[in-house]
């Protein structure tokens, strides 16, 4: 039994579900930092600061439960529309955070993968991002996809351009493009598609996250605001997931 399987079995036992019902891959839309702060009459950045503290705890919880891939939506390409002060604060927070979490990623054998475009992220942030990715490249535990300056439509367009360029150069025939080749051209190429997508703060939308990758993903939407999100919330989501009937287009066997 692999290390992942052993961990999933232990987690499943704790949750009272069968091990084969544990998701291997989870994606989270970490939403509600602003509302968390507003409820406390605090400026929005206080919510972002609290939200950042939750990230590493959830990463470690997922490692412990044998999750093989975790994708976290931390900043969308559409989030650049926010007030400059909020964007600047978030960029500084990400830059600092990327340095801070490095030892924890190493200790827990986590590989960091960037999801999203590099432009127009600052050189300073990209430097820390590259360092963290380089340092964790050989880690063969959980893959952590950090969606930072990410947009799914943009990702799909980039993949289409890459495949078209390969065709023009004669490396690929249009007829040979299939789901596998398309998946490999996305920034999630090395990750398994999410089986469970969690969105905090009750919003019932995708907000341009992993459109290709979630074609058969189970959704779990919780009222909990991201800064209040904790292990018990992940566990509730997993239990809900385990009780779904995933037909994947087929019919029930019973
Ligand atoms: C999520 O929280 C964090 C980012 C999008 C960066 P929000 O900032 O969107 O919080 P709400 O939705 O305004 O409460
Ligand atoms: C989605 O949340 C992006 C992240 C969580 C990083 P938003 O708060 O930006 O989504 P909308 O604007 O409510 O759709
Ligand atoms: Mg939001």
TrEMBL record:
InterPro entries: UPP_synth-like, UPP_synth-like_sf. Its EC number is 2.5.1.-. Keywords: Magnesium, Metal-binding, Transferase. It comes from the Bacteria. Substrate binds at residues 32-36, 44, 48, 80, 82, 199, 205-207. GO terms for molecular function: ditrans,polycis-polyprenyl diphosphate synthase [(2E,6E)-farnesyl diphosphate specific] activity; magnesium ion binding. The active site is at 31, 79 (proton acceptor). Mg(2+) binds at residues 31, 218. Its cofactor is Mg(2+). Binds 2 magnesium ions per subunit. GO terms for biological process: polyprenol biosynthetic process. It is an enzyme of class 2 (transferase). Coiled coil: none annotated. Homodimer. Catalyzes the condensation of isopentenyl diphosphate (IPP) with allylic pyrophosphates generating different type of terpenoids. Belongs to the UPP synthase family. This is Isoprenyl transferase. It comes from Limihaloglobus sulfuriphilus.
């Amino acid at each position: 039994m692999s290390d992942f399987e052993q961990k999933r079995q232990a987690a499943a036992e704790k949750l009272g579900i069968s091990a084969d019902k544990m998701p291997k891959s989870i994606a989270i839309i970490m939403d509600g930092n602003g509302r968390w702060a507003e409820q406390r009459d605090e400026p929005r950045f206080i919510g972002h600061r609290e939200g950042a503290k939750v990230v590493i705890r959830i990463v470690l919880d997922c490692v412990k439960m044998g999750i093989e891939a975790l994708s976290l939506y931390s900043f969308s390409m559409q989030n650049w529309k926010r007030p400059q002060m909020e964007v600047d604060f978030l960029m500084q927070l990400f830059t600092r955070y990327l340095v801070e979490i490095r030892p924890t990623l190493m200790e827990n054998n986590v590989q960091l993968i960037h999801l999203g475009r590099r432009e127009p992220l600052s050189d300073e942030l990209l430097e820390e991002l590259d360092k963290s990715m380089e340092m964790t490249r050989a880690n063969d535990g959980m893959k952590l996809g950090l969606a930072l300056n990410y947009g799914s439509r943009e990702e799909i367009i980039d993949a289409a351009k890459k495949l078209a360029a390969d065709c023009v150069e004669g490396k690929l025939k249009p007829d040979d493009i299939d789901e596998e080749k398309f998946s490999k051209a996305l920034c999630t190429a090395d990750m398994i598609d999410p089986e469970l997508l969690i969105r905090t703060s009750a919003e019932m939308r995708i907000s341009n996250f992993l459109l290709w990758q979630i074609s058969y993903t189970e959704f779990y939407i919780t009222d909990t605001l991201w800064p209040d999100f904790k292990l018990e919330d992940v566990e509730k989501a997993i239990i809900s997931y385990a009780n779904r009937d995933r037909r994947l287009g087929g019919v029930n066997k019973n």
